[in-house]
Amino acid sequence: MKKFWLLLVPDLSQVHAARRDEALKQASRSDLQAGELIAMAVWLVIVSVLTRSILQGATDDNRLAFTIVTNLIFTAPALLAVFIPIHIRRIRRGIRRQQEVGP
After folding, report:
1. Per the confidence metrics, is the pTM higher than 0.70?
2. What are the pLDDT digits (tens) for 74-91?
3. Which residues does 24 contact at the CB level (< 8 Å), separation at least 6?
4. Which residues touch 73 (CB under 8 Å, ≥6 apart)?
5. Which of 53, 49, 57, 34 is nearest to 79 (CA)?
6. Residues with Cβ within 8 Å of residue 12, at least 6 apart in sequence
7. pLDDT tens digits, residue range 20-60?
8. Where are the domains of the chain?
9. H helices then E strands: how many in the chain?
């Protein structure tokens, strides 16, 4: 997992190895920017509207199964497609701020 974060956040390699876990925790607690919050909110509304329109085609007999499949195949990946890059961006920004401030 640590190598995975080193690939996603190249600046993390400049942090001492013993301090990387703590640096990641601090970076993940950094605030989201207003644009990121707006993008997440707008994307959540868009995905919700699209999911509701997809679920309109479900009959009462298969509504539960159709909802589960729709959430697994469409909704979750669609949300993650935007939320994960925003989270990685926040981590990168937090690591850069820690490097600017110093140890």
Report:
1. yes
2. 999 999 999 999 999 999
3. 5, 12, 91, 95
4. none
5. 49
6. 5, 6, 20, 23, 24, 95
7. 888 889 999 999 999 999 999 999 999 999 999 988 877 77
8. 2-101
9. 5, 0
